[in-house]
Amino acid sequence: MTTQRDILRQEILQVEQANFDQLALQIFHYQAAYNDLYHQYLALLRINPNDVQTIADIPFLPISFFKTHEVVTAKGEEHRAKGLHRATFSSSGTTGTTTSRHFVTDLDFYLQNTVLGFERFYGKLKGFCVLGLLPSYLERSGSSLIAMVDHFIKLSTQPQSGFFLYDHEALATVLQDCQKNNIPTLLIGVSFALLDFAEQYQLDLSNIIIMETGGMKGRRKEITRTVLHSILQHSFKVSNIHSEYGMTELLSQGYSKGKGIFYPTPTMKLLPREITDPFATQKNNRTGVLNIIDLANLDSCAFIATDDLGRVYEDGSFEILGRLDASDIRGCNLMVV
Question: What residue ranges define each of the domains in the chain, with the CATH number in brackets?
Answer without folding.
Answer: 4-105+248-255+260-323 (3.40.50.12780), 108-245 (3.40.50)
